[in-house]
């Protein structure tokens, strides 16, 4: 009977509009993900937006703006767990970060609708679609650009393989050469190899001039006690 007493057609219509806006906008965001064959597609994003809208709308119905604010905090944390479920790690590669971020944005879109801000919800949806669509050519352009070691931040290593008898002398030479080139070693470790001992010097600097490291590696390759010398870079986490 309480439901009959508290029934309010105007409030019901308001909720209907909020949920419908959230569902439609979540569907638009999800359609783009579905088209690109992502793990979280049309239904996931539509339901996330719809659920966020329903929670915020309910909070507002019960406690006004304060209730909506409290519910928003739980929606944000809950969607964070949901987004983590679509992130996959395959070896050194991580996939699904963009899809997880899209789910998060779908929740914000739904929250706008649930808070009776349909225009802002439409605007948020447009920005999400723009980010996932129009930024793709820019990402491709950046990824295809030649890598300039002096402008990137990475961990650089110089690797020199020598015999057991020359180990200590070679460590000193490596340290001296790197210091002279103004690329001091932050760390130096060794690894046993079939052809001898590999000395691995990790540079302290996050950026280098490739030609200078090439010259250092060439110098060590020319030494009689050295069987192998090279340098490498790996991206920083």
Structural class comes to alpha+beta
Secondary-structure element series = HHHEEHHHEHEEHE
Number of helices: 8
What is the number of E strands? 6
The largest beta-sheet arranges its strands as 4-5-3-6
Radius of gyration: 28 Å
Shape: elongated
Helix share of residues? 55-70%
- Distance linking N and C termini: 59 Å
Low-confidence stretches: none
Textual characterization of the structure:
With 237 residues, the protein is an alpha+beta fold. It has 2 domains: 7-144, no CATH class; 154-235, Alpha-Beta Plaits. Helices cover 60% and strands 18% of the residues. The protein is built from 8 helices and 6 strands; from the N terminus they run H-H-H-E-E-H-H-H-E-H-E-E-H-E. It has helices spanning 2-5, 9-35, 42-84, 97-114, 118-133, 136-144, 167-180, 210-221, and strands at 88-90, 93-95, 154-162, 185-193, 196-203, 226-235. It has a 4-stranded antiparallel sheet with strand order 4-5-3-6, covered by helices on one side. A two-stranded antiparallel sheet has the order 1-2. Helix 2 runs parallel beside helix 5 and helix 3 (42-84) crosses helix 4. The radius of gyration is 28 Å and the shape is elongated. It starts with a helix and ends with a strand. The mean pLDDT is 84.
Short description:
The longest helix has 43 residues, at 42-84.
Summarize the helices and strands and which ones pair or pack.
Blueprint (H helix, E strand, L loop, with lengths): L1 H4 L3 H27 L6 H43 L3 E3 L2 E3 L1 H18 L3 H16 L2 H9 L9 E9 L4 H14 L4 E9 L2 E8 L6 H12 L4 E10 L2
């Amino acid at each position: 009977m309480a439901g009959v007493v508290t029934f309010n057609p105007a409030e019901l219509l308001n909720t209907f509009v909020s949920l419908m806006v959230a569902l439609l906008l979540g569907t638009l965001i999800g359609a783009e993900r579905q088209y690109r064959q992502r793990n979280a597609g049309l239904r996931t994003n539509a339901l996330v937006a719809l659920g966020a809208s329903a929670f915020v709308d309910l909070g507002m119905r019960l406690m006004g703006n304060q209730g909506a604010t409290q519910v928003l905090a739980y929606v944000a944390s809950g969607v964070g767990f949901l987004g983590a479920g679509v992130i996959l790690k395959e070896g050194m590669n991580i996939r699904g970060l963009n899809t997880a971020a899209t789910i998060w944005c779908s929740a914000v879109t739904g929250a706008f609708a649930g808070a009776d801000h349909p225009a802002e919800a439409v605007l948020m949806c447009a920005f999400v679609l723009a980010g996932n669509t129009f930024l793709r050519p820019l990402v491709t352009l950046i990824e295809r650009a030649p890598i300039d070691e002096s402008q990137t931040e990475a961990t650089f290593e110089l690797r020199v393989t020598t015999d057991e008898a020359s180990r200590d002398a070679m460590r000193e030479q490596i340290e001296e050469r790197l210091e002279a080139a103004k690329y001091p070693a932050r760390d130096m470790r060794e690894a046993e190899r079939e052809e001898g001992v590999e000395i691995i010097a990790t540079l302290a600097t996050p950026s280098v001039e490739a030609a200078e490291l090439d010259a250092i590696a060439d110098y060590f390759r020319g030494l009689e006690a050295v069987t192998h010398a090279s340098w490498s870079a790996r991206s920083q986490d």
